[in-house]
Design goal:
By secondary structure, the chain is an alpha+beta fold. The chain has six helices and twelve strands. β5 and β6 form a beta hairpin. α1 packs parallel to α5 and α1 packs antiparallel against α6. The radius of gyration is 19 Å and the shape is globular. This is Molybdenum cofactor sulfurase. InterPro entries: PyrdxlP-dep_Trfase (IPR015424), PyrdxlP-dep_Trfase_small (IPR015422).
C-alpha cells in the first residue's frame, strides 16, 4: 500500500541521514552538511530524500560535479544542482541575491557543472529512495562516501549517533534498522573487519591497494548528450 511504501522509503532516508550526518573524517570534522528543516522525525514532514554537500577534512565543500562523477563509477545515480528550485537553493545554501548575480556573470546556468564559484557551492547533491530501494542500497552509498571522500581513519560522532538513535527509538512505529559497516581502511567499532573487491564501471582493483599502486584502464565511455546513453570507445 501507499502507507507501507511511505514508511519503507522514509526509513531508508532516515537511516542514511543518521549515518551520513554522524560520519566524520579522521580529524573529527563532519563529512557532510545536510540541508533539512528537521531531524527526519516523521514521514509526514520529510520525504524519502537526503539533500547534502560533502566536506573535505578542512571543512571546505566538495563540488557536487565531482561527487556525481565518482558516484557514476560506482553505478550510483544521484541528482545534483538546484533541482529546479532556486529559491530553496538560495535559502539552504545561504546564497544572497548579489552572489546569485555574480554566479550568473561567471557563466553559471542551470544544468551545468559549475558547482563552485569563489569557493561557494552553487548547488548540492540529492539521493532519493523509492519502493524498490533497499537498506543494502543505503549501505552501498555510505561505503562509497567513506571510500572516496573521507580522510582516514573513518570515524563516527558517537554522541550525535546515539542522540539520533534515541530519537528514532522513541518515535512511533520505528523499527530497528541494520547497522552499516564501512571497511575502507578503518571500521566502525564493533564491525567485523572485511576485505572486499570493488568493481567500478571501467575499473577493477583488489583490496588493500596502496595509493601508489597502478590501475588498469579497461573502458572509456563518452556521454555527448545529457541524459542519453553513452558511446564506448
Amino acid at each position: 500500500s501507499i502507507h507501507n511504501i511511505q514508511q519503507h522509503t522514509f526509513g531508508l532516508a532516515r537511516y542514511t541521514y543518521t549515518l551520513l550526518s554522524s560520519l566524520c573524517h579522521g580529524n573529527g570534522r563532519p563529512v557532510a552538511q545536510i540541508y533539512t528543516e528537521g531531524q527526519f522525525e516523521s514521514p509526514i514532514t520529510q520525504g524519502p530524500i537526503v539533500n547534502f554537500n560533502l566536506l573535505d577534512s578542512s571543512g571546505q565543500i566538495i563540488g557536487y560535479s565531482q561527487v556525481d562523477r565518482m558516484a557514476s563509477l560506482y553505478n550510483i545515480h544521484v541528482r545534483t544542482g538546484c533541482f529546479c528550485n532556486t529559491g530553496a537553493c538560495q535559502a539552504f545554501l545561504g546564497i544572497t541575491n548579489q552572489q546569485m548575480k555574480r554566479n550568473l556573470q561567471a557563466g553559471h546556468v542551470c544544468g551545468d557543472n559549475m558547482d563552485l564559484v569563489d569557493g561557494q557551492p552553487t548547488g548540492s547533491v540529492r539521493v532519493s529512495f523509492g519502493y524498490m530501494s533497499t537498506f543494502e542500497d543505503c549501505q552501498r552509498f555510505l561505503k562509497f562516501v567513506a571510500e572516496c571522500f573521507v580522510e582516514k581513519p573513518v570515524t563516527v560522532d558517537q554522541v550525535r549517533l546515539q542522540k539520533l538513535k534515541t530519537a528514532r527509538a522513541s518515535s512511533e512505529g520505528s523499527n530497528e534498522h541494520p547497522s552499516v559497516e564501512i571497511s575502507n581502511g578503518e571500521n566502525h567499532k564493533g564491525a567485523e573487519k572485511k576485505s572486499s573487491e570493488v568493481s567500478q564501471k571501467g575499473f577493477r582493483h583488489g583490496d588493500s591497494k596502496s595509493p601508489g599502486e597502478a590501475y588498469t584502464l579497461t573502458n572509456i565511455y563518452i556521454y555527448p548528450i545529457k541524459s542519453c546513453g553513452a558511446y564506448e570507445v
